[in-house]
Structures are given as structure tokens and as C-alpha cells.
Amino acid sequence: AQTVTQSQPEMSVQEAETVTLSCTYDTSENNYYLFWYKQPPSRQMILVIRQEAYKQQNATENRFSVNFQKAAKSFSLKISDSQLGDTAMYFCAFMKGGGSEKLVFGKGTKLTVNP
Amino acid sequence: GAGVSQSPSNKVTEKGKDVELRCDPISGHTALYWYRQSLGQGLEFLIYFQGNSAPDKSGLPSDRFSAERTGGSVSTLTIQRTQQEDSAVYLCASSLRGKTEAFFGQGTRLTVV
Questions:
Q1: List of residues 6+ apart from A40 with CB closer than 8 A
Q2: Which of A6, A44, A91 sits opposite B106 (nearest CB)?
Q3: A98 to B40: CB separation less than 8 angstroms, yes or no
Q4: Of A99, A107, A108, the CB nearest to B99
Q5: Contact between chains at A103 and B48 (C-beta distance less than 8 A)
């Protein structure tokens, strides 16, 4: 079975600064995907970024980037130029390869961006 | 509709009553998932539908929980004889077959008193 661990229950950052959220996972699968989801107070989960395990290049989406270390089973999220709207719960998630598979989530990190 | 729709948004029920939660996925999405989010916890997988079939129902916590999907579209999650530990946010997601991006609804917050 796969497990996802987020060791930082809460974090805070000043507006315009950079913050990194940590995630580690455990799996025996060779083909899989990793995700970061954002959950604002509206409760709706929003996909932030996705990484295919077979790709060595780290995924980036505007101010969001990941540091994917496959051997170490580590998948951290870096948010640059933090904005007040980034305040939310962030969940790291794992999916086995093939698509249409269930997501396995970590317990989340509550991020607060301070003005 | 533009996104995944769930109803009701909030539900308060008395212990022992049955409840039904509804999920209307994005049109054309054949894959549908139910997750449960308890206070302070991550999302816990409950059940997965591909069309009207449920190839993976391994996450249903007890036989009080059941789900169905009709016409390859709307799904209903039913909890019988609710208990206080069933209090949580129930989230539904849908995706295109074979695709990795899941789109989530805003969830139903269930409170059992």
C-alpha cells in the first residue's frame, strides 16, 4: 500500500516571499504520478501541479514548482512570490500509473500568507 | 454544468438516521470517486466508479455505507444508521477515463448529532 506523509501541519510566510512545503511517500510502484492540491475555505480541491514519476524534469506552473527526488521518495512544493490568495490547505497526493486510479493523500499543510 | 456539483452543501442529521449525498459529475466524465475528509485529516478514499460499475469499493468503512451510480452520471452515497464518527466532509471527484486529473466538487459537510 502507498502512504503519503506531510510533516508540517502548519506553515506561514510573508507576502512576496518563498515557502517550501514538504512531502514524502512510500511505494513499490514504478509508474505513478504525484500531485499537489490546494483546498481554500470553500472546500473545493484545486489541482496546483502534477509530476509524472518517469520524468526527471521538475514540473513548474507559474509561481509553483516542485523538487522531485525519486530515489529519496520526496516531492516538495515551492511557492515563489507568495500571495494572500495562496492561503489554504495544501495536500500532497499519489496515484498509481494508468490513470483513473484513486488518489492517496497526505494529511495536509495549512499555509498562511501574512501581509 | 461547468463543474462537479454536490448536494446538499451541508447536512445535519440525528444519530441513527439514514442520509443520502448526491454527486453530479462533469458531463462526459466516466470515472467518479468519493472521498471522506474528517477534521484535521487528509482525504480518505471510499469508492471508485467507472461508468455504473464500482471496481474498487475497498475504502467503504462499514456495511452501513453504500453507493450507486446510474446512467453513468449521478452518484448517490448512502449512509445508514449514522453515527457521530460519520461526521465529516464528503467530497466527490470525476475524471475522464484514463486521465489523471480529477475535478472535485465542494463537498457535503455532514454533522451527526
A1: A46, A87, A88, A89
A2: A44
A3: no
A4: A99
A5: no
CB B109 to CB A43 under 8 A?
Answer: yes
Question: Searching chain A, which residue's CA lies closest to the CA of residue B36?
Answer: A105
Confidence of residue A57 (pLDDT cuts 50, 70, 90): very high
- Rounded distance, CA B107 to CA B109, Å? 6
The residue of chain A nearest to residue B98, with distances taken between CA atoms, is A99
Query: Please, are residues B69 and B75 in contact by the beta-carbon 8 Å criterion?
Result: yes
pLDDT digits (tens, 9 = 90+) for A65-102: 999 999 999 999 999 999 999 999 999 999 998 767 89
Partner A contacted by B106 (CB < 8 A)? yes
β-strand pairing of A24-26 with A10-14:
unpaired
Say whether residue B79 is in contact with chain A using an 8 A CB cutoff.
Answer: no
Residue A64 is placed in which grid cell? 509553483
One DSSP character per residue, chain B reads --S-EEE-SEEEE-TT--EEEEEEPPTT--EEEEEEE-TT--EEEEEEEETTEEEE-TT--STTEEEEE-TTS-EEEEE-S--GGG-EEEEEEEE-TT----EE---EEEEE-
